[in-house]
Amino acid sequence: MTDLETRLSPSPAPEPPAGPGEFNALTIGDLNVWPPVVLAPMAGVTNAPFRALCRRYGAGLYVNQMITARALVEGHRKSLEMASFGPDESPRSIQLYGTDPYSIGEATKMLIAEQSVDHIDMNFGCPMKKVTRHGGGAALPWKREHYRRIVRAAVAAADNVPVTVKFRVGIDDNAITFLDAGLIAEAEGVKAVALHARTANQLYSGHADWRRITELKEAVTSIPVLGNGDIWEADDAMRMMRSTGADGVVVGRGCLGRPWLFGDLAAVFNGEQVSARPNLGEVLDGMVEHAELLCAWMDETRGIRDFRKHTGWYLKGFPTGNEVRRRLNSVESLDEMRELVGSLDRSISFPEGGMRMVRGHSGSSKNVHLPEGWLDERDDEVAMPRGAEALVSGG
């Protein structure tokens, strides 16, 4: 086994603690996930190196970044590359996005036959203008029957491979869709549903409304319900599950620059003490390893450039200075990066409240752009334009 294969190989998943506990393992079809924690797929982030890094800290279900069904079926090189997994990675989990039942079905078959995936998640949560204005993403569940056909196509094509669905509360407060989306998914044979407890017009602003997760859990009773939104620290996951009855949590922005969050989550679910926060030196060591994994997975030029976006997330809250950050955001080689981080004071303590500092998407609420007349009727026949399958970035 090569050095890269060794570093990307999964660690054995721990068993749930013996005896009765507060929470159960998350069961998704034949998959048993402990602790009941899922890494949210994030475009350009949750590739094999990042998943391997997170998995090293703690167990859970680590979902590959989202790919677009049509692009995969049409053989686009980038989509095929994004759909790849690390050597011996198990289980193989990936998120699929699409608006056409045929493309969804064909892409599902391809992923199972060619990538040996063990779990397929479907994205109906993207709030981005370029997607919703064509009726895709978080806009799509408004059209209940079209949404049903897409979900049905994926489940039928997946056969015994479990399919899950992720969606938002709705388009806005006047167009709520999550209860219908959950009940339809349950009826069509989906094995779990996940709710990002914000509406599309909220984007990633404000606070997730966990009460909506409670409502979904009360409505969808035969399959697990997962909650997503504002999981910044391990205690947030515990609070969410206790207050909503959710069967598990989905972690997105909270782990950006903080892959050790999964270690914290494993600790609290196993009734153990969370480790002390890392100092700057330990964070820098993690940064370098992340960059090394990316460079080995791609090549050094592409890998180091891909890593640049992570720099600000890792250093969030540390007093490193704007010049250092600027230089790190333009490094061209691993040696240049190592030299830069080697000049920093490794003893600096982790910033107060650093885990809760917002990373990734932010901003304020915005009106959701929709196709003309989209909200007039919920169950009319709809022909989705090709533009609805533009590459999107999570939900």
Keywords:
395 residues, TIM Barrel, Non-ribosomal Peptide Synthetase Peptidyl Carrier Protein, Chain A, 15 helices, globular
CATH topology of the largest domain: TIM Barrel
Number of strands: 12
Unreliable residue stretches: none
Q: Could you say which structural class the secondary elements and strand pairing correspond to?
A: alpha/beta
Coarse shape? globular
Please report the distance between the alpha carbons of the first and last residues.
36 Å
Q: Roughly what percent helix?
A: 25-40%
Strand order of the largest sheet: 3-4-5-6-7-10-11-12
How many helices? 15
Radius of gyration: 20 Å
Domain count, please report it. Answer: 2
Element order, helices and strands? HEEEHEHHEHEHHEEEHEHEHEHHHHH
Question: β content, as a range?
Answer: 5-15%
Tell me the CATH superfamily of the largest domain.
Answer: Aldolase class I
Average predicted local confidence, pLDDT? 91
Q: Architecture of the largest domain, CATH level 2?
A: Alpha-Beta Barrel
Show the helix and strand layout:
Elements: H1 3-8, E1 26-28, E2 31-33, E3 37-39, H2 48-57, E4 61-68, H3 69-73, H4 77-82, E5 93-97, H5 101-115, E6 119-124, H6 129-132, H7 144-158, E7 163-168, E8 170-172, E9 175-176, H8 178-187, E10 192-196, H9 211-219, E11 225-228, H10 234-244, E12 248-251, H11 261-269, H12 280-297, H13 300-315, H14 322-328, H15 334-342
Parallel strand pairs: 3-4, 3-12, 4-5, 5-6, 6-7, 7-10, 10-11, 11-12
Antiparallel strand pairs: 1-2, 8-9
Q: Any overview of this molecule?
A:
With 395 residues, the chain is of the alpha/beta class. The protein has two domains: 269 residues, Aldolase class I (TIM Barrel), CATH 3.20.20; 70 residues, Non-ribosomal Peptide Synthetase Peptidyl Carrier Protein, Chain A, CATH 1.10.1200. 38% of the residues lie in helices and 13% in strands. It contains 15 helices and twelve strands. Strand 5, helix 5 and strand 6 form a beta-alpha-beta unit. The two termini are 36 Å apart.
